[in-house]
Design brief:
Length: 384
């Protein structure tokens, strides 16, 4: 069997290259984000295979004899014979694809398109495979499909089953109610510029002041000269009390002093990849405070792999939930869903613009799925 990888900026382009070079009989064996060491060649990798007899045939076929100039020069006859050849080629490709479906990343050939769509929307290859596998099992177990067991499932049924699977997988939790007799304390952590301070003020208004709940804001962002000042100004505008703190002890004292407030929101400095040593002291403190709920804030447009690295970096804070900002700058929810599933953390809030507090939404499965299913369809890509 001849196997070859093709790299390109999109899965479709990689498939086009493969088809061009290996011909219509070649089988799609796998598609995935290119591993980091091969990223220079293209963002996506597809692997195609030619089965032995096809590979052999291709190589050992004698050159076609010169065509006789007779009835075959008639344009209609030529067109018909061209079409017949195409149909035969498609039939051959389909037959071998069915026969070798078990070697594909999908449970049946008709699932290849939705699988590639999920990859295109930046779901991780592992999660896309799992979703497609479960959707297939769901359809297969449905008595309504038993009579048509031998026929391929229809695209609309596949999409419904994948949607159901995603609804089952997506986890959201936007509750910020005050526990009895205590304040609800929430801290936002994340990389610089991801929208922590803005989101914190949005939360203060929509989950606090709008429901007559008293709010206390704390900034631990004293690394930068103007870090805490931004939040102090917002606190004054929205009429919340405010403290700036330099140390975990200072934070603890500020929380204690405002226990009677319904909602205490803590802003933190943005830590880039090179700043994580500095983050260690705060991370230890937050990890040891079960009364403080930490949410990691990250932009929704991050690619799955980068988002994964950011979330892993902030794991030292023992975060409970994820907030995604800048939904207005992306149309893909694959990375958010993949990472929420991988880390086992629910998505709490989504933000979709700079307006305070309008551009904040409690996360819902429906909203995340909308981003997967109601964006313009990627051009149909079929493995057959
Ligand atoms: N387009 C867009 N911009 C946002 C969103 N959330 C925050 N921003 C902007 O991103 C910039 C950085 O936000 P900021 O809250 O200061 O980030 P921080 O450094 O994490 O505290 C500001 O200009 C915000 O107005 C959002 O959902 N969409
Ligand atoms: Mg900030």
């Amino acid at each position: 069997m001849k196997m070859k990888s093709f790299f390109a900026p999109t899965v479709e382009e990689a498939i086009e290259q493969a088809r061009h070079e290996m011909g219509p009989e070649a089988l799609l064996v796998n598609s995935r984000k290119a591993p980091p060491e091969a990223r220079g060649l293209g963002e996506y990798e597809v692997v195609f295979a030619l089965l032995p007899e096809e590979a052999d045939n291709k190589e050992s076929q004698p050159p076609a004899p010169p065509r006789a100039e007779s009835a075959s020069s008639n344009p209609v006859t030529l067109e018909l014979s061209g079409l017949r050849k195409q149909v035969e080629e498609m039939g051959r490709a389909l037959t071998s694809l069915r026969a070798h479906a078990s070697s594909l990343a999908v449970p049946a050939p008709e699932f290849a398109e939705i699988y590639l769509r999920l990859i295109e929307y930046d779901f991780s290859a592992e999660l896309a495979q799992e979703i497609v596998k479960q959707a297939h099992a769901r359809l297969d177990a449905d008595p309504a499909s038993w009579s048509r067991r031998k026929a391929p499932f229809e695209a609309s049924s596949i999409e419904r089953a994948v949607r159901t699977e995603l609804e089952y997988l997506v986890s959201v939790d936007a509750t910020l109610e005050t526990p009895p007799e205590k304040a609800r304390v929430v801290a936002l952590v994340g990389p610089p510029g991801c929208g922590k301070t803005t989101t914190l003020v949005k939360l203060a208004v929509s989950n606090g002041l709008a429901s007559a709940r008293r709010v206390h804001l704390i900034s631990a962002d004293t690394r930068r000269v103007s870090g805490a000042e931004q939040l102090r100004t917002y606190a004054a505008i929205i009429g919340a009390t405010f403290d700036a703190v330099d140390t975990p002890l200072g934070l603890q004292q500020s929380i204690e002093a405002h226990r009677e407030k319904g909602l205490i929101l803590v802003d933190t400095p943005g830590y880039g990849a090179v700043d994580m040593d500095e983050a260690a002291e705060w991370a230890r403190f937050f990890s040891n405070q079960p009364g403080i709920e930490v949410h990691v804030v990250a932009p929704a447009w991050m690619r799955s792999a980068d988002l994964g690295r950011v979330l892993d970096r902030f794991e030292i804070f023992s975060p409970a939930k994820l907030i995604f900002t800048r939904l207005d700058e992306t149309s893909s929810a694959g990375a958010m869903i993949s990472e929420s599933v991988r880390t086992g953390k629910p998505v709490s809030f989504l933000t979709c613009g700079q307006q305070i507090p309008e551009d904040l939404e409690p996360a819902t499965a429906g909203r995340l799925l909308e981003l997967v299913f109601e964006r313009p369809a990627v051009r149909a890509v079929s493995a057959a």
